[in-house]
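Thread amino acids onto this structure.
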């Protein structure tokens, strides 16, 4: 399962750099979970040809990652955004700022409002990632 996840992630980042033929066969194998035999029969090529093409695509995608590190950077950014969300979590059970506390100063309220804004922005970033 982990290999399929890695293949799909690499394809999401670098798949457009493959030829249309490579993309089509790779998608059938990785996303559509078709067997080599099914792909070979549908395309009119040998099972070995499908196997070789998928292996070649795997190497190409891995090579792009080893040079560009986009997946690695994506994972790091996602981890940092998750950490920001944890660090800015407010003690309120709903995670929303409660300005009803009479003991809070204006400065406290501004800090909490900024933390809430950071938390919301990091949540939006997490959705985009």
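Threaded sequence (129 positions):
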């Amino acid at each position: 399962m982990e290999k399929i996840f890695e293949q799909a992630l690499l394809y999401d980042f670098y798949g457009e750099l493959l030829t249309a033929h490579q993309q089509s066969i790779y998608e059938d194998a990785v996303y559509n979970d078709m067997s080599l035999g099914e792909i070979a029969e549908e395309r009119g090529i040998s099972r070995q040809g499908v196997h070789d093409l998928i292996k070649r695509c795997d190497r190409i995608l891995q090579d792009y990652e080893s040079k560009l590190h986009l997946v690695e950077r994506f994972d790091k950014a996602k981890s940092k955004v998750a950490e920001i969300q944890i660090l800015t979590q407010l003690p309120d059970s709903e995670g929303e700022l409660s300005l009803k506390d009479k003991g809070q100063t204006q400065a406290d309220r501004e800090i909490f409002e900024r933390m809430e804004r950071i938390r919301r922005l990091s949540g939006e970033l997490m959705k985009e990632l």
